[in-house]
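Contributing new records

If you add data, match the layout below exactly. Sequence lines come first and carry their own label; structure lines follow with theirs. Keep one chain per record. Anything else will be rejected by the validation script.
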Amino acid sequence: MIDTAVIKDNYASMLDTQLIAIAKNDGHDLTPVAFAILKQEFKKRDLDYSFIEAAEENKIVQHQEKIEQFKHNASKEYLTTIWNYVIEEKESGTTDNEILAGLKERGLEEPDAVEIISNTESKLKELIDLQSSKMLFGGIIFLLGIFISLYSYTASITSGGYYIITYGVVLFGAIHFFKGFAAKGRYTRILKSL
């Protein structure tokens, strides 16, 4: 719990220049309680209130930016859910009309739903490319792990000592490769069935 008395005492002990610096630099980050106390101190000392007004505007702008960011993230998740639905239905052999009805049930307007259905082929190609990149990444990590293990082993044979076997790196690379391989195969089969 915020101790308002401590905040009041703290602000009261500050110089005018320090209070102005807080309003200018940190006003938008203050809690509502701390900001209200800062405003009171400004009024009590008859300081230039434009610094408080600017901080309030910054608070509003940052709040709006946070809301927009949240909406953007939510819309990305929503779009991902929609694409997952379309791809799963295509995999099941559902007709475009049935998918259209399902998309409308999920809140999409008909023109948007029709556009998503018509872009299914390009979306699948995009997903196939993404999985190819994952396979490449996984393959490189896998081979790097093997190389490090073999190099370490051969160095220990010639010069004696210990060697490192990079199980974790090899396993990480293999998992990424095979996950990408499986997903790419799935998307390729769906694309061929269109």
